[in-house]
Amino acid sequence: MISIVVFTRDDAEWLERCLGSLTAEPPAEDYEVIVFDNCSRDDSAERVRAWRGAGGERASLIQAQRDTSFSEGNNLGLRAAAGDLVLFLNPDTEPRGHILDACASTLREQGDVGLVGPCLRFPSGAGQANGWALPTVRQLLAEKLGRAARHARPTGEQTDVGWLMGCFLMGRRADLSAIGGFDERFWFHGTDLELCARVGDEGWRVTRLEGVELVHRGHADWSLARRRASWRATAQWLWSRR
Question: What is the pLDDT of residue 207?
Fold first, then answer.
């Protein structure tokens, strides 16, 4: 079974569309949905309670009593999960069943894969980057000078990468629990980088499935504040690896 953990805050419209995608095209695998609501001020909780999947499934709801980090909220979802596979999913995605099934099959058939994700695209159909080499000071400098690219080029039906975007990360629950889930020293930015790197440290592959595409609305526009937060998180991660 796949446990789908969705961390949300004030995303009622997107969250309803996300859950609706599962209703419209559910995976062949059994699944459960666990929504972690981080103090939303909209009607997210009511929409979760009202949702019913195509097979009659309901989403369980964890409601934070205080502003909670992405790492902590997803770790609480991980601890509540019953499936042997766990998918960390953002509410601004449209998860179709064939995407979940393809990723689940990869994990079940390839024991050396620790985390798997699809290619991404915006609702417009334009491609969205997903899958990068782990950053180093030398590589970041080379990128700045235009001498290197971080995004991993396709190498076949699947491409091994250093890290994947946290909007869709699927792995085995036992393995993710064994390494402690997300590092709660990271609040939001850098959480996916840190987790993927630690999965790689354990000897598992982090891989992107080519030809399997997920619609993701986020990351179309990066404000200066968001870019700075991302830079700080990257610096935090680099410092932790020294």
Answer: 98
